[in-house]
Design brief:
mainly alpha
Length: 82
Amino acid sequence: MFLTPGAYEIRHQLAIVAPPEIVDAARSAFVFLREPRDLLVSGASVDDAAYVELEERFDAAGAELRTVMRLDLGAAKSITAR
């Protein structure tokens, strides 16, 4: 995934046009994508507690990214809690 063209380019484009809070949240979510990959490569399975914990942290990072993006778009606060 990280060697496929596009992932880093999109992050750079986002850094040009998005406000800092979105760039920071996007970076956090992007970094979390690498951690489960590295854990699985090291021999862990998706049933391991460490993997489950990373998955929960990634879900939280993704939720935070969606929230700041929605707020930047002017979405009502009621939908940012989803």
